[in-house]
Amino acid sequence: MRLILPHPGHFSALKEIIANKESKGLKDVWEVYMAGSPEVMGSGRATLYAPLIEDIKEQTAYAHQHNVKLNIAMNASCFGGYHLTLEGYKVFKWYFNELNKAGVDGVTVAEPYLVELLRDSPMETVISCVAHVDSPQRAEFFEDLGADAITVDTNINRNFEVLEAITKAVNCDIRVIVNEGCLYKCPFRHAHFNLFSHITASSLNAQSQPLNTFGDYYFDKCISIRVRDPAQITRSPWIRPEDMKEYEEIGVSDFKISGRANAVNWIINCMDAYSQGTFDGNLLELLDCPSELRYMFQMDNTLLDGSIKQWKNCKKICNECHYCDELTNKVLRVIKK
Known about the structure:
Helices cover about 40% and strands about 10% of the residues.
């Protein structure tokens, strides 16, 4: 098993993460990832801190001293066409070259054009979940473009037939995100990624203009849906620490923890739970989901033992199955203030 950890971006956070790894002897921690510069492009998630090249170089060297790889997430889903201009081509080629000179091990992207742009780079090209790889065919397309590793769409996290088919269809590494708390088959997913791609890009870049939105419509809707229907929390495609062995049995060995916009202590708690393969507490404390849900609901992880057996064979026709509805009544309670 190899764990890929989120990193907020500032050097002190990296030092805390690695210190915890070494003090507890967590040998499964293999890689950390953080955002790149917003002056070059945005990313698919909120970015708290974006290091400059010199900072990236120093952090990469530090990570390597402790046998940890460093990956830069540049997984914007939309560039407004800027990447296909001559100026955009020059900017991205220059930035990828600077990352390589800084010693970065890999770059995570979602745009197929950037995958080809990285084909001859010594850095590992990792496909983001933002690319929505959800079938063997789509995985093959990205591998042919030059992918070294693919992070699959979280919507297939519990579809073992498709996951196993993907591992057999390609030679590149397959990664699953274990703790993403997004809605299963979320109707806002594509639009939300596009919004983040633009608001995390600096206005200094010709691809983006400053956005003064009146709020995050998708975030608010996401919370309200789950408050009204808590079974949606259970349907979310998260993976319990105890269930990772089920994925290893079908050929998945890379497990990615989502949440680079969270506090370092939260990241460390997730690292401990997934490295140890066990967790006794409120599962929502491990999920990369709105904190409002963690404060509102208690989901007893120990009561979820055995649920993976149902999900491994589930046909995903929720209106006929109702397993998650019944399970929610058993494991989820409202926290009374």
